[in-house]
Every structure is written in C-alpha cells, then in structure tokens.
Amino acid sequence: MRHFRFFILLLLCAFAGQPIMAQTVRGCVVDSEQQPVAGVAVVMQTRDSVYIDAVASDLEGRFVLTSDIRPYRLLFQHLSYEPLAVERSDDDAGIITLIEATNVVDEVIVRGERPLVKVEQGRLSYDLQVAAQGKIAANAYEALTKLPGVSEQNGSLTLAGAGGVTVILNGKPSTMTADQLAALLKSIPVEQVEKVEVLYAAPPQYHIRGAAINVVLRRRFDRSFSGQVNGVYEGGYYNSWGTGANIAYSTPKLSFDALYRIGNGRSMRKLDMTSQHTVGSDTYDIRQEQILSSDNLTHNLRTGISWKTTEKSHLDLAYTASFTPSGNGDISATGNFVDSYSHIHDDPTMHNLSLSAVTGFGTEIGADYTYYRTTSRQTMSLSPADGAPSSFTTDAGQRIDRLSVYLDQRHDLGSQWMFNYGARFSYVRDDDYQYYTSEEEMGDLDTDIRLDEYTYDLYAGASRSFASDVSFSASLTGEYYRRNGYDRWALFPQASLSWMASPEHILQAEFSSDKGYPSFWDMSGAVTYIDGYSEIHGTPGLQPSANYSLTLTYVLKQKYIFQLFGNHTADAFNQSAYLAPDRPALIYQSFNWDYMSSFGALAVIPLRIGERFTSRITLVGFDYLLRNRDFYGMDYKRSKWVGRASMDNTLRLSRKPDLVFEFSGSYQTEAIQCTYDLTPSWQVDAGIKWTIAGGKADLSIKGNDLFDSVTPVSKVDFGQQHLRMGNRFYTRNVTVNFAYRFGGYKEKERKKVDTSRFGH
C-alpha cells in the first residue's frame, strides 16, 4: 500500500472538515426592544439584485442562508415592521433591528411559492423537501424520483438527457456500488437532506465525470436533538416490511447522526420466453417459463460525526454497513426443452468508512474504503425433455476491496477568478472463485480469478464570474488506468457556461466527457447457469467506453425547465441476449458496440390551480441510435424515436385534518435497447398522506403500478435471432408508511416567502 502513504499522511495532518460544507450566512432579527422577531422574510441577493435564496426567521429570530457569494445584500420584510435592506461581506450578518410599522393589521397570512430550483455556482440546486412536499416519499431515495427529469428504471435512478448518472454523497463519490448507495438512501429520511444538486457536467473536484446527482446531507452546528422512527409494509405478490430509527445530535462544535434499519424484502419475477432457435440445419421451437423469487433479511446502519475545528475547518467521519446473513433465491423453469430448479443461498456483507477534511486555506482531502464479501452455494437439478436427469452444485465466493484517496486545492485569484486542481488515486482488488461439483465432468468451468485495478487522476480547472451575470468554468482531467494486461492514458475536458439574464431567466450550457469501465463480472470468463437453457457469460477483453455529452438548459422563473441534449458513447458496452449458434442455449453477455447515441429535448412544466392543486408535467423525446459493424458477422445498425411523458399531481383534501391525495402516471412509447425491441409501457400510482400529531407523524397508503403495466415485452428479431420475453416483475403493490418525529425533528411550518416584491 505504498501508493497511499503520501495521501494518508496528508489526511492525518490536515485540519479537517466536511467535504462540501457550503458557506453560510447567519444572523438574528430583533425589534426595537431587542426581542426576537419570528416569521421575517429574509431574501438574499447579489449587490446587483440577482436572487440567491430566501428563508424565514425562526422563533428566536435566527436565520441561516447558504451561499458562497460575497459580498451580498439582505432584504427584510414583515407586515408589522418597516422593510429594511442591508449589505454585508462576512458570514455573520449580525443583529438586525427592525422598526415597527405605523399601520399594523391584527392577522395576515402571507403566502407565496418557495423556489424549487436555484443556480449555485453553475449547478442546478433543488430543495428536496419542496420537491417532495405533499407527496408520498418515505425516504430520500423516493424523494429523488420526485425531482424533474429523475426517475427509476429497472431499479436504478436515471436522469433525462444524460446517457448515465452517478449518485454521490456530499460532493464526493463513494466506493460503495450504486445498489449499496441506493440501500443507504432508502434508510435516510427526507429531512436529513439539505439539498440535491443535479449536474450534467460534474466539476472535477467531485472526482466523477459526466452527469451526477449530488445528495448533500444536513449538518447542523447548534444545540439540538432530534430523531425519527418509521416503518413500512408492502403487500403484493409477496409481503415485505421494514422498520428503522435515526437520531441527530449537535453542538456548536459537533454534529452527530446515526441510523439503523432492518427489513425483509421478498420479490417475484416471471419470464415467459419463446424462441425459434436454429442450430445448423435444425430449428428448435422452445417455450419456457421462468420463475425467480428472493427472500432477504437485511440490516443497514450508518453513523457519522462532524467536528468543527474552526469556522472554516471541519473533520467528517462516517461508517456505513449492510448485512444479509441469510439470503435466499429460487429459480424454477418449466417448458418443452428442459425443466430445472435451483436454490441459491448467500450472505453478503459490506463495510464502508469515509474520512474527509477541509482546511481554512482551501485544501480538501479525504479517503473512502469499502469491504465487500459474500459466499454462495447454488444447487441445480435438470430434467431435459430428451435426456436423463442431472444435478450439480456451485460454490462461489467474492471479496472486493475498494480504496479511494483524494486531494483538492482551491485558490481565489481575485477579480472573480478561481483556480482549482487536485488528484485522486483509487485501487480495486477483486477476488472471485466458482467451483462446480457434479457427477459429470465440469472442472473446465471452474474459475479462480483476481483482478487489480489502478486509477490515477490529475485535474486543473478555472472559473470566473463576470459583472454581466455570466459565469464560466473549464477543466481538464488526465487519467491513467491499469488493470490486468490493460493500461491507457486519457484526457477528459469539461466546460460550463451560465447566464442569469434576470432572476426569472437562466441559461446554461454544459459539456462533459467521461470513460466507463466494465465491472468484474462483465470481464470475467465465468459462466453462471440461470436454468437449463439460460446462461450468463463474462467477456474477457471487454473494452472501456468513452462518452461525450452536451446540454443546453433554460430555466424560467426558477421552476419551468427546458433542455436540449446530446450524448455519444463510443465502444459502449451493454448486456444483450443471443441464441448460441452451436447449441440450444440462450446466452446473456456484454460486448462492445461501435457507438450508442441519443439526441433530444426535455420540458418540465409545473402547474398550480388554486391553493389546493399542484401538478408537474415532464416531457422527453429523443432519437436513440446504435451501431456495431461486426455483430456476429453483420453490420448491425438501428435508430428509434422514443417519447416519455409523466404527470405528478397533488391535491390537498383538507388542512384539518391534514390530508393530501397524490396521483401520478407515466407513459413510454416503443423503444429499443441494444438488440431488444420494447413494447410501450405505462404506470399509474395513487395514494393518500395524513399528517397527524401536530405535524410530528405521517401516515400514508399508496398503490403502485395499479394496472401492473410498467414492464414492457422484449423482442429480438434479426437474422436467425428470434426471441420473445414477456417479463412480469409483479410491481403492483400497496405500501403503508408511518413515520414519527421526536425532539426538534418536528417539521417546522414553512413560512411561504413571497419573493415577488423583490423582483423574483
């Protein structure tokens, strides 16, 4: 581990902090008798009147605004006091004294619309609580799907207009996998998220490239204690449940949080498959039905601590773990070719440790380590239609160690110029074995593989804000990548341009480039048997892909979003199914395509009718193209226009009791995915949310995929490849969620700040 000594030494010696602890402006509002004034609208602007943020003072007259802009202007307004404007340059705005107004009314309710999206340093920043307000979102993961352009497809988050998206925490990538990170987000309450950044060209200091969703967790440095207990029950084909609790404690110097969740997840999937399988001069008419089920009891926990050493220095430490001591899966298949049954038992375990620091002189340093281990045993029995029964056992195991260390430096050059540079080193070791035991000879299928990956990144970038409300940033990253028998240098440029013509008109252009690397399983030569007909093969020699993306975004009134986008991926790799030419077998395997591209447009249109009904329409249309000049001896080229439409509606039934009805629907036209033709698909969800106990508790009931229509039928039809797969994931279910907040965790009544009087 000599590669890490320098970084570790720096990490241990640095004065520390939270990786993306954004600067804040704090102050207190009092009256002429120095008594705190609650409910004051506090609006932050630049000196040339560009809107930044707005909050309402709390019961003690305190307010906190998040922004790195210095100097700034603060506007204060309350119906009982005279309006006031002040200009400041420091993080501490001090004590603001308001003068009572001459004419005072007894009671006035001030209503307005809190902005959903802002532009911060060229990034689209969303208030997750606003996005999920009045909607049924049991956790941070579900709340992310309420953001414009964000949706869940096949168990993963996707971003409209992006070829792929990476989810990160607190501005830095984790060595946890996407599935492991998703499990963590499903355990985090929405209230624990400070904001979410959606980036189509992530800045280099985030140490990822391309599109990203940055989830910024809340860190408070005051004297407070809060917590939440929650539970969920899901009734569908099988019943699942989960329950958990979390607490948060803070002092002016220390912030601590912890959560634990246990859940039993059960799933069912059916696959009706038919194929016209040609082997030489023979054609097999194969019809198979595959049933896949799983039953897993999983424990998730996380604890984090932040130490505020100085006003601008912090140390952040977090530990995350996941345990599934007894995972079980069953795969049965019946048909005219073969009957089979297999049982899989595994016990995956994951530990993640993250340490990061920020110093007062612009240095940021950190390390992230993940340990993953699992062992599994699969027993399979086969009964071919024209052969003797057989059986075998597969013993497999995997251990993965991932380590990432980074160092970033930022310099303020004056005249609105900022220069930054840094480095990141990551190492992955993957040990995998798979041994077969059978009455027949299967020793040639045994595998025992070790993979070592080394990635070295160096970057430099600059940014500037101009007086004309134009900001620009550009960077260049050099990367050296090495794994068993493969190494390569690559350069990745990135650029972003933002123009705030006014607070109501924001234009943004972003360009990014990235490289994608196949997973261990994609590159291994291992063979995994699903049933007696279907197999998964690894692809030794699979090459990385190179992606280029360009987006043009227009934000109107900080809520209407219009976008043009284009993505091009060279050497794209993806898993597809094909019928083996030498024997009756359906092979799932990843391989490289010459390119995959998409070009299209996005529109997000929110609507409000009266005080009770809100809606948001999202429209996406794009042309999807792919090509492989040597696809099993043929020039394979396809293109398809694809359209997606979704509508999310919220109706407040009453305020006392506090009842909200949610209704949403989505539709996708015919589409293609590699060799697959996908039929149209649609989904309808509906539910009701009841807030009780003075805002401390929520009870919701929601029906998901009411018509069991979200999964399309997949078809392959070219040359001698004729395959149809009717997937049923049994996504139709009813979920019941309950959450109770205690301590200071009570959701504060969000004062509707009418910012129109300030030109917003």
Q: Would you kindly provide a written description of the structure presented here, covering whatever features stand out?
A:
With 760 residues, this protein is mainly beta. It folds into three domains: 2-110, Immunoglobulin-like (Sandwich), CATH 2.60.40; 119-217, TonB-dependent receptor, plug domain (Ferric Hydroxamate Uptake Protein, Chain A, domain 1, Beta Complex); 233-402 and 426-570 and 582-758, Maltoporin, Chain A (Beta Barrel). 4% of the residues lie in helices and 64% in strands. It contains five helices and 46 strands. The strands form six sheets. It has a 28-stranded antiparallel sheet that branches. The longest helix has 9 residues, at 5-13. It is globular, with a radius of gyration of 28 Å. The protein starts with a helix and ends in a 17-residue tail after the last strand. The relative contact order is 0.12.
